[in-house]
């Protein structure tokens, strides 16, 4: 019984590690292919979100600042993203140009 539990645990951690590697690879691919085909880039990011949800992987700070989680658009400042600074409240505002969603990130 204990061996079965340990085996399942090892299998789950191995699957999660493979999923994380695939997520990293898909984000790289999305960045490289964006200039030629933005829709394919969006599809890659949709796959990232599907993998992340399936294997219960949290969004890292790099992932939070890489793409819009509403419309799956890769963020490139000036092309798909508007960046504003709120000096009074010490926030950086990311505004997605595709869907208009506003993200707030605190800074020091």
Overall description:
By secondary structure, the protein is α+β, with helices and mostly antiparallel strands. The protein has one domain (2-106). It is built from three helices and three strands; from the N terminus they run αααβββ. The chain has helices spanning 2-33, 38-54, 61-64, and strands at 81-86, 91-96, 102-106. Strands 1-2-3 form a three-stranded antiparallel beta sheet, with no helix packed on it. The longest helix has 32 residues, at 2-33. The protein is globular and about 55 Å long.
Low-confidence stretches: none
Radius of gyration: 17 Å
Question: Can you give the helix content as a percent range?
Answer: 40-55%
What sort of overall outline do the alpha carbons produce when their principal axes are compared? globular
Average pLDDT confidence is: 94
Distance between the termini: 51 Å
Biggest sheet statistics: 3 strands, antiparallel
Counting structural domains, the number is: 1
Number of strands: 3
The largest sheet has its strands arranged as 1-2-3
Tell me what portion of residues adopts beta-strand conformation: 15-25%
Alpha-beta classification: alpha+beta
The ordered string of helix (H) and strand (E) elements is HHHEEE
What's the tally of helices?
3
Summarize the structure.
This protein is an alpha+beta fold and 108 residues long. Helices cover 49% and strands 16% of the residues. Helix 1 packs antiparallel against helix 2.
